[in-house]
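Q: A reviewer asked whether we had any structural model of the full assembly, not just the individual parts. We don't, so I'm hoping you can provide one. Inputs are below.
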Amino acid sequence: MESDSGRPLFIPVVLGTTRQGRMSAHAAKLISRELGRYPGVETELIDIAQLPLPATDAGEAIKYPPFSAAMDRADALVLVVPEYNHGCPGLLKHLLDSCLKEYIHKAVGIAGVSAGPFGGVRVIENLLPVMRELGLVTIFWDVNFSSIQKVFSSDGQLLDDSFIRRIEKFLKELLWMAKALRYGRQQISLQ
Amino acid sequence: MVNRSAVICPQCCVAMNHHSDKILYVTDLQEGAQADPALGGIIAEFHTCPKCGGAASRPA
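A: Here is a predicted structure for the entire assembly that you could use as a starting point for your response.
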């Protein structure tokens, strides 16, 4: 069978909120920066605030070609998601629902963000069945940015170095899963 | 099992790997008639090119 073992893994980081003053942006930039350190990995920060998200329809009817192309190319993705009322931002769900075939058998890791002590654990748990239905494969490491205002200064300076190690664990698992699933998608037949 | 021809990658001109079948639950009434009554939705096949990694889908 043909192979593309030399092609770098592409793992975009999706900043999943449009809220003004969002501290999640600092978390997304940090994860994107750490991901960019791995050889053989390409990444891109996708800010949902920069995407046109019409509210006049939903699902694949509002597919935005550049986002679809990024998901098509992706081997895995990272979602950086603040917890709003125990759930995820509605616009993130609206965007994720605009694709399907692009996600099948690809890995996803989720970083939760909260101002309170739980680091987005509830939004991560809420997203798991959604990820499953979209055909994505979740990893068992998360990053929980609790009390985000203590993790980053207002200008995005990291104040708690322990997050570097947490992100490393999370990304190593994500990279393993991304490689395994790429092999599976390309080489292992359902039949 | 019906033997169908492989999906060919439009970029690389090689046979794509059929790695998944997924049920798509019907969300609008027009699709309802196409749904498999036993499975409750429409089955789609998902294929990936072994060379470039591109994805494709078609109804099963």
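A: Points you may want to mention in the reply: Chain A has a mean pLDDT of 96. Residues 42 and 162 of chain A are 24 Å apart (CA to CA).
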